[in-house]
Amino acid sequence: MERVLNVVTSTTKRFTDYPLAPEVIEALTRAGIERPTPIQESCIPPILEGKDVVGQAETGTGKTIGFGAPIVGKIDTQRVSVQALVLTPTRELAQQVAGVFEQLGAGRNLGVALIVGGVHASDQILKLRSGTQVVVGTPGRILEFLEERVLSLVWCEVAVLDEADRMLDMGFIDDVTKI
């Protein structure tokens, strides 16, 4: 497993220097984002190569785009199965991450489902059944949906543990292990 650490340096690279999906580049450009942050510059190439990455950086440095941009480009939007799972420790973080995936995948017609506790499950189930390729959620609700066979990860190729240290601190180790 490759370890990636944030090194604070200025970058001369642009997102267009990476073999990211054109729709992802367009989404970043529309958002006014042209140059990767150091954590993005460190993470994007190995993720594009299919390598495992552990990234660590301060809040606000763009980690979600760092893993989201290459993942969105690799998703086959013609398949109606879940191909990527992003686990987060809190509902609020899951909402933020799902929003980034929706923005990055808007031009690709990417299906993103937000699966979290504390809200009624029926809308989440409908979203899953509508052909979702990316699931972003919290461990408790994800595990519940897996056990109830509402969610299948048979075709899932990518798993992201966002803020994994916090998830473990919050006692999600057993749920994450089961998932």
Order of the strands making up the biggest sheet: 4-5-3-6
- Averaged pLDDT: 92
Number of strands: 6
User: Which structural class should the secondary elements be placed in?
Assistant: alpha/beta
Count of alpha and pi helical runs = 8
Cα distance spanning the termini:
20 Å
What does it look like?
- It is built from 8 helices and 6 strands.
- A 4-stranded parallel sheet has the order 4-5-3-6, with helices on both faces. A two-stranded parallel ribbon has the order 1-2.
- Helix 1 packs antiparallel against helix 3 (63-74), helix 2 runs parallel beside helix 3 (63-74) and helix 3 (63-74) packs across helix 4 (91-105).
- It has helices at 22-30, 38-48, 63-74, 91-105, 122-129, 139-147, 164-169, 173-178, and strands at residues 2-5, 53-56, 84-87, 112-115, 134-137, 158-161.
At a glance:
The chain is an alpha/beta fold and 179 residues long.
